[in-house]
Amino acid sequence: MTPSLATAPTTTRHPSPAVLNAMPAPSASRATPAGPFAPWGDEASAYSRDQVIFSEGDTASSVRIITSGMVRILRMMADGRRQIVGFLQPGDMLGLAPGGTYLYSAEAVTPVTLRRLSRTQFDSLLERDPELRLRLLAATATELQVAQEQMLLLGRKTAPERLASFLLRQARRVTPEPEDHCRISLPMTRTDIADFLGLTMETVSRAFTKLKTTHLIRLLPDQMVELVNVEILIDLSEGGGRSGLIQ
pTM score, two decimals? Predict the structure, then answer.
């Protein structure tokens, strides 16, 4: 996953003066994206659904900040199989690379707009603002925790447990403590979800049906899902005692 500085812990809601002075002030016509780098960078770039933003192995000359839409990041195997690493949303940053090339590919799930920061601009911001360095460190630590949870999900959890974990993760992007009957948007395809959870599309469809028939979720129009019983979904996602009833 790629760090989201928009959700990293911070002691202030606004960029520090060092960030405010790092780049010229934006024009009034620019949309204001989330995150500490807002609203600097190049003019927004638009990508259509399923368009490639960059590919694994491309030269990593910039980082991008998502201002609208959803992006999937993925790795490809030599035989064409793919593993989706994550789904990024407004405020998330993608394209950080320790070397000179991108380690993964990025594609638009929905129509997407991004702002671009060259590595020079990005490095300059970090050099000028120690708070941003701390936020990046905190975001990286959070993503390490997410990666560890993903290892557990792929290695030990059943299909319903994986799907429950995924739905709760999406809900927590909206609110840290989702409640019963909260609704989330799932614009990605069932194949996308399968490739993220390490399952087949048929298994994912059966898991959705299982959660629906046990009245844990409701499938709504326009790719919306309602989480009916969050407590049991959490128990299921953690392999709790009640999870054996939903296998």
Answer: 0.76
